[in-house]
Design brief:
heterodimer; A: alpha+beta; Thiol Ester Dehydrase, Chain A; 6-stranded antiparallel sheet; 2 helices; disordered N terminus; B: alpha+beta; 3 helices
Chain lengths: ~140, ~140
């Protein structure tokens, strides 16, 4: 089930991912065994990431967590639902941590938290769709 | 589609936001309690399955549209404290060249609720199709 952890540097990612990660201030961390995390820094002159950046970061991290549980003949099929509750704004760089907590033949249930140096600032969950492709 | 003269400054201010430039987003309509944005498909925002616009990006742009719609209703002593809740249901892959994000305030209060849709912006058979349905709740501060 383990996937090779991605690089911790956005600079070594494929083009599209690198551009988006850089724009959002996202630095991907490890992903394996149904878990994935990333760090989110402020963009431009922001001292801390806005919820705008965190919302994208959460989706990207949960997809990476789900991907570690999907093996052929199953395929990734897209985020179906995403719900996030922000308790407060970030005061500095934040860490997104996602965990697959349930799965069926058609979806993965992912829970996540977002925290900064002062503690948890957001929490949520998502369902990620998977599909099974049988050879003809 | 148009930005009313009284909101032109607000639209220009948001279009200077770094994420507007990074994600190729513009304000195409702005009225009291209503904001409509357009996002071009680019090498930056396409990162989803089936070569679609990333789901997180769609959620983020809907969140920004919600904040803009709320801003048009703020009283003199009001400000947006932040997003409290965001929920998004993805219905179809966003693969069009242009994506329209339409946000309307449903309730204005200490907790302000916004309904938003992410739609196909291209002309043709799929024009206007809803790719994602979004609800954003913003906390407002007064005084």
């Amino acid at each position: 089930m383990a996937h090779e952890p991605p690089s911790s540097s956005a600079e070594t990612l494929p083009g599209n991912a690198r551009r988006l990660y850089t724009a959002m201030g996202i630095v991907p961390g490890s992903s394996q065994d149904g878990r994935a995390n990333s760090e989110v820094r402020g963009i431009a002159d922001e001292a801390a990431p806005s919820t705008f950046a965190l919302t994208t970061a959460v989706d990207i991290a949960l997809v990476r967590a789900a991907s570690t549980t999907v093996q052929p003949p199953q395929q990734m099929n897209g985020t179906a639902e995403l719900n996030v509750t922000y308790l407060r704004e970030a005061s500095g760089p934040a860490r997104v941590a996602c965990t697959v907590v349930g799965q069926t033949s058609t979806m993965r249930l992912v829970e996540f938290t977002v925290a900064d140096a002062e503690g948890e600032l957001a929490r949520g969950r998502s369902t990620y769709a998977v599909r099974t492709v049988r050879p003809r | 589609m148009s930005v009313a003269t009284e909101w032109a400054g607000l639209a220009a201010e948001w279009e200077r936001h770094p994420l507007f430039e990074a994600l190729s987003v513009t304000v195409i309509e702005l009225q009291r309690g209503h904001a409509c944005l357009e996002m071009e498909r680019t090498a930056t925002n396409v990162l989803g399955v089936r070569d679609s616009i990333n789901g997180g990006v769609q959620a983020t742009v809907a969140e920004m549209a919600a904040h803009i719609a709320v801003t048009t209703l703020l009283g003199e002593r009001e400000r947006i404290e932040g997003t409290q809740d965001l929920g998004i249901s993805y219905l179809y892959s966003a693969t069009s060249l242009r994506t329209v994000i339409d946000a309307r305030v449903l309730r204005h209060g200490r907790l302000t609720v916004v309904d938003a849709e992410v739609r196909v912006g291209d002309e043709g058979e799929e024009a206007g199709r809803i790719n994602a349905k979004v609800r954003v709740t913003c906390a407002l501060a007064r005084g």
